[in-house]
Amino acid sequence: MPTVDAGGSELYYERAGSGEPLLLIQGMSATHRAWGREFLAPLRESFECVVFDNRGMGLSGEARMPFSTADMAGDAAALLDALGIERAHVLGISMGGMIAQELALARPGRLASLSLGATYCGGPQGTLMAEDDLRTLGAAMASGDRERVLRAMWEINLSPGFRAEESRYAAFREMATALQAPREVIFEQMRACAEHDTAARLGGLEVPTQVIHGDADRLLGVGNGVQIARLLGVEPRLLESVGHMFWWEQPDRSAALVREHALAPA
C-alpha cells in the first residue's frame, strides 16, 4: 500500500497516468475514491495524476488534531516533496479547494496552474451550507443510521436533475462507503472549513487560476465561486443546473475544463 510520511501525517496516495504532474485534493469527508473512474480516466491521458486521502481519512494514517486548512496544505506540499515533484498542476474541490488556496498562497512556485472547484474563501461575503441543510445532515449523523446519512449527502451534494435517475445512487453509495471516514475527523474538517479565510489574500495570488462551480450547489452556494473569481479577476466557469459534485455529474466536461486550463499557454 503506497504511503508517505508527509510532515508527520502518513498519507495514502495513488500515482497514475502520463504527462505533467496533476495533484488532486479532495473535500470534506471524502477519500480518493470520490474522484470516480469516469473523471480520472481522461485526465490520466494527459497528466500523471496524484490522488490521496487527507489526514485521518480513508487509507491514510491517524489525523493529528486540531488542524487547519493551512496545515493540510502543508501535508500536500510534503506529499509533493516525498514524491520528488517540484512543480505540479493542482485541482482542489470543496475543502480541497480551500487547502489548494493555502498551498498556492504559501508556495506559489510549486504550482504550474490551479483549478478551484465548488469551494469557499471565507470573508464577509462567503457562505457555508444553509442552516436547514446543516440541520438535516447533523441530525442524520447524530442518528447513527448510515443509510440516513448517505441519503442526506446524496440530496445535498447532487442536483435534482442528476438525482432523478435513481439508479445513480448505487455508485454514489458504493463510493461513500468503500473506505473509512471517522466522524471525529469529519467534525474537525468542518471546524477547519468554518475558520478558513483567504479572501483578503487571494488578490495577490500569482498562480494562473480558474474557478469552476455548479449553479445548483447547495453545500457551498455558487456565490462563493463568483466571489473567488471576482477577487482573482477571472471569469468563473459556471455549470448550469449542476450541484456541488460537478465532476461526478459531468465528468467529461469537468476533466476537459481542468485539462484546457492546465495546458493553456502561460
Helical content class: 40-55%
- Identify the CATH homologous superfamily: Alpha/Beta hydrolase fold, catalytic domain
Distance between the termini: 37 Å
Strand portion: 15-25%
The CATH class label is Alpha Beta
Helix run count: 11
Total of domains: 1
Report the biggest beta sheet as strand number plus sense, adding barrel if it closes: 8 strands, mixed
Architecture (CATH level 2) name = 3-Layer(aba) Sandwich
CATH overall fold name: Rossmann fold
Q: Which regions are unreliable across 5 or more consecutive residues at pLDDT < 50?
A: none
List keywords for this structure.
266 residues; 11 helices; Rossmann fold; eight-stranded mixed β-sheet
Tell me what the structure shows.
This protein is α/β, with parallel strands linked by helices. The protein has a single domain (3-263), classed as 3-Layer(aba) Sandwich (Rossmann fold), CATH 3.40.50. It has 11 helices and 8 strands. The protein has helices spanning 37-44, 69-82, 95-106, 131-143, 146-157, 160-163, 169-177, 183-195, 222-232, 246-249, 251-263, and strands spanning 3-6, 9-17, 20-25, 47-52, 88-93, 111-117, 209-214, 237-239. Strands 1-2-4-3-5-6-7-8 form an 8-stranded mixed β-sheet, with helices on both faces. The longest helix is centred in the first third of the chain and has 14 residues, at 69-82. The chain is globular.
Question: In a nutshell, what does this entry contain?
Answer:
The protein has 266 residues and is an alpha/beta fold.
